[in-house]
Each structure stands twice: as structure tokens, then as C-alpha cells.
From TrEMBL:
PANTHER family: AMINOTRANSFERASE-RELATED, GLUCOSAMINE--FRUCTOSE-6-PHOSPHATE AMINOTRANSFERASE, ISOMERIZING. Pfam families: SIS. This is SIS domain-containing protein. The keyword Repeat applies. InterPro entries: GlmS/AgaS_SIS, GlmS/FrlB_SIS, SIS_dom, SIS_dom_sf. Keywords: Aminotransferase, Repeat, Transferase. Residues 21-164, 183-314 form the SIS domain. The lineage of its organism: Bacteria, Pseudomonadati, Pseudomonadota, Alphaproteobacteria, Rhodobacterales. Gene3D superfamilies: Glucose-6-phosphate isomerase like protein, domain 1. It comes from Rhodobacter calidifons. It comes from the Bacteria. The keyword Transferase applies.
Length: 324
């Protein structure tokens, strides 16, 4: 896992730069994502970016709609299947079912010639190379980059911004958050963690919370800063660590500011993390989410090791999840 985290910035940059030739999407009206686990967090990040740039609605479909049910009508739609292995049975069935129901199937996978690729009209490679640790890291970041390459083809005006972001993230190699030691100490004391974001930062929060659970056996929950101030705020009355992932988008600052102030006022231990903390600036929102993952994955790794866990091989998990 340690080695794969260090490879993530270059994987991201290469994924963004790949050429894309789109199938006919002249009548495209909506995009649906299908994914699980870390791939679903990447899909959530991409959904916000796709909606902002294309103005098409983008939302998630549960794989069980296809793997257990009979599907839904998908005329004039694209279905984006994100799967590092390209082999999970429910995602293969989803790709098959989506095509049968009229969708153009687009896939992001890290496994050439996978079963998902065989069912897709277009596959973009994550191209992360072998990922041996059970927790996905570089392939998640690569999936975000591949989605940005797809978006660059759908909305050509986005392409220069995507490429500039890729260059900025490539420069993150070897860099760390300045709060790293304080964050590690706080995580080692924590029993409960909230990871908070907004827009693409919410998908990054989902992924970091998942990593804290699967690597460190820590109870971690992801929340949007627009929702966390309702019922979930009450948990701050117990010892609670709050990590706020800030993509530095101007329009999400008031929401994050309010969440930070409320949690601090209630006595929560609160950290706000930004890509610019490590020198990455002027990123697209999806790239900022990827940067935050690159910068926080080492925290999950170090916390796991300090707690005596093997982050490469969590006791109850396997690399390919056989869900139906």
C-alpha cells in the first residue's frame, strides 16, 4: 500500500492525458453511474464534475437494479461503470443490463480485457498497473483521472483545466500535509471520526472514511457539510474527531465554514485539510478531491500500522468482492 500510494500522482496524470474517442452521444440526456466501494466514491466525485461541465443530470444506480431486478429504461442515457477489477459479477450484469435497456455503456477499469470491458461501448483505462494491497488507492485516484479524460472529450473546454490540474497533482509526489503528525496523533486517540466534504469533497470524504474503516478498524462516517448539522451533529457530545476535506471551491466555503465553526464550538477536535496545504493550487474540483486522497491515504496507512493492523491485507476483506 505504501508503494502504491507513492505512485498515485503519476497514475492520475497519465489517466487524465489519455486520448478518448467517444461513441455517438448526440441524443444524450442523462448519465448514470454504477459502482461499489471505493469505485463508488470515485463515481460520486465524477458525478459532480460531470454535472457542472455538461449540465446533464448524473446520479447513481444501484447494481442490484440489474443484478437482482430487470433493469430500468435507459434510452438516450449513458451508464458509467467504474470497477478497478472489471470482474465483480454484479457490475458485469449491470453493464449487460444497461446495454439491453438502451444505454451507451462507458467503463473505467484497471484490468485490460475484463468482463466489464467486454460489455462496454467505450472503456477508459485507469492504467494504474498491478495493485496488490487489498485497499485500493492509486486505482481510485486513476479512476478520477480517467473520468476527467472522459469529461475532456465530452466538454472540450474543460480539457486545458484538466491537464493543468494533472500537472499540479504530479508535482505532489513526495509531499505531505504539514499537519501530518498532529493528524496521526488525533487518529490514534480517536474512537469515532466524521469526514466531511461538499460537492466533489463529499466523494473524497466517503473514500477516506472507508479507508479508515478497512485499514484501521476505526468507526468513520462521511457526511456532506450541508447535512451533518442536522441529527449527526449531536454525536459531538461524545469524543469525536472531525476531518473536513476542503476542495477550495469558492461556492462550498460558506458551508464548510459553518460546519467547522459549529463543531469547534461544540468541542469537537477539528482539522480542515486543503490541497494548497501541500502546494497544489488552481485545481478543478474533481482534481482537488483526488489531491486530498493522495495527501490523506498516508494517514490511513500510518494509523493502521501504529494500531497493529496489516493495511495490505485486512483480515475480513479480499481484493475482488463477489457481490450479486
Amino acid at each position: 500500500m505504501a508503494r502504491e500510494i507513492t505512485q498515485a500522482p503519476q497514475v492520475f496524470a497519465a489517466a487524465v492525458a489519455q486520448p478518448v474517442t467517444l461513441p455517438d452521444l448526440t441524443n444524450l440526456r442523462a448519465i448514470y453511474t454504477v459502482a461499489r466501494g471505493s469505485s463508488d466514491a470515485a463515481a460520486n466525485i465524477l458525478a459532480y464534475e460531470l454535472m457542472r461541465e455538461t449540465r446533464h443530470p448524473v446520479t447513481s444506480l444501484p447494481p442490484s437494479i440489474f443484478s437482482l431486478g430487470e433493469g430500468v429504461r435507459l434510452t438516450d442515457s449513458a451508464v458509467l461503470v467504474v470497477s478497478q477489477s472489471g470482474a465483480s459479477p454484479d457490475l458485469v450484469r449491470s453493464a449487460q443490463g444497461a446495454r439491453a435497456m438502451g444505454a451507451t455503456v462507458l467503463a473505467l477499469t484497471n484490468a485490460p480485457q475484463s468482463p466489464v470491458e467486454a460489455e462496454a461501448d467505450l472503456t477508459l483505462g485507469i492504467n494504474a498497473g498491478p495493485e496488490l494491497a487489498v485497499p485500493a488507492t492509486k486505482s481510485v485516484v486513476g479512476a478520477i483521472g480517467a473520468g476527467m479524460a472522459l469529461l475532456s472529450a465530452l466538454a472540450p473546454a474543460y480539457a486545458p483545466r484538466a491537464q493543468a490540474s494533472a500537472e499540479a497533482i504530479a508535482a505532489l509526489s513526495g509531499k505531505h500535509l504539514p499537519q501530518q503528525k498532529a493528524l496521526l496523533a488525533a487518529l490514534l486517540r480517536a474512537s469515532h471520526v466524521y469526514v466531511i466534504g461538499r460537492d466533489t469533497g463529499f466523494g473524497a470524504a466517503q473514500e477516506l472514511a472507508l479507508k479508515l474503516k478497512e485499514c484501521c478498524a476505526l468507526h468513520a462516517e462521511a457526511h456532506s457539510s450541508s447535512e451533518v448539522l442536522h441529527g449527526p451533529l449531536q454525536l459531538v457530545t461524545n469524543p469525536l474527531l472531525i476531518l473536513i476535506l476542503d476542495t477550495e471551491q469558492a461556492d462550498v466555503q460558506p458551508s464548510l465554514d459553518t460546519a467547522e465553526a459549529r463543531f469547534k464550538a461544540a468541542g469537537g477536535t477539528t482539522f480542515r485539510l486543503r490541497p494548497s496545504d501541500a502546494g497544489a493550487r488552481d485545481l478543478t474540483p474533481a482534481a482537488a478531491a483526488a489531491a486530498l486522497l493522495i495527501l490523506t491515504y498516508p494517514l490511513a496507512l500510518q494509523t493502521a500500522l501504529a494500531l497493529g493492523h496489516d493495511p495490505d491485507r485486512p483480515a475480513t476483506l479480499s481484493k475482488v468482492t463477489q457481490t450479486r
